[in-house]
Automatic annotation (TrEMBL):
The keyword Mitochondrion does not apply. One of its GO terms (cellular component) is plasma membrane. It comes from Hyphomonas atlantica. GO terms for biological process: cytochrome complex assembly; protein-heme linkage. Pfam families: CcmE (PF03100). This is Cytochrome C biogenesis protein CcmE.
Length: 132
């Protein structure tokens, strides 16, 4: 009886570990990609770092923005994103993009999250701060 209970507990722990490992909410930085290689083509992953100053451009029709993600290494990730960027998205700011790598190594984002520092203040509250 004890052996069966131990076996069931071990199986439950293994399943929980596998589920947590698959759903870990981590992102790849340019340095990690350079060290570990690119994930398989088509797999949905997150990349993160800072938007390189001077790298933000738009496609000819203006619908797609293209920018470079950097970290504290010499490596970079080129990102394409079609959609409306978050209000906090700017060059030099932190970004996490969810999407897929293509066969040529290009990253196509389907969602962009802009990160802010501890001094962030919503745009709507700035007039209140100036009056006070």
């Amino acid at each position: 009886m004890f052996g069966i209970a131990a076996l069931l507990l071990l199986a439950a722990a293994a399943l929980a570990f596998m589920a947590l490992r698959e759903n870990a909410n981590l992102f790849y930085t340019p340095e990690i990609l350079a060290e570990n290689g690119q994930p398989e083509t088509g797999k949905v992953v997150k990349v993160g770092g800072w938007v390189e100053p001077g790298s933000l451009t738009y496609s000819d029709d203006g619908a797609t923005m293209i920018f470079t993600v950097i970290d504290n290494s010499p490596h970079t990730i080129r990102v394409n994103y079609t959609g409306i960027a978050p209000d906090l998205f700017r060059e030099g700011q932190g970004v996490v993009a969810t999407g897929q790598f293509g066969p040529e190594g290009d990253f196509t984002a389907r969602q962009i999250l802009a990160k802010h520092d501890e001094n962030y203040q919503p745009r709507e509250l700035k007039p209140l701060d100036a009056a006070g």
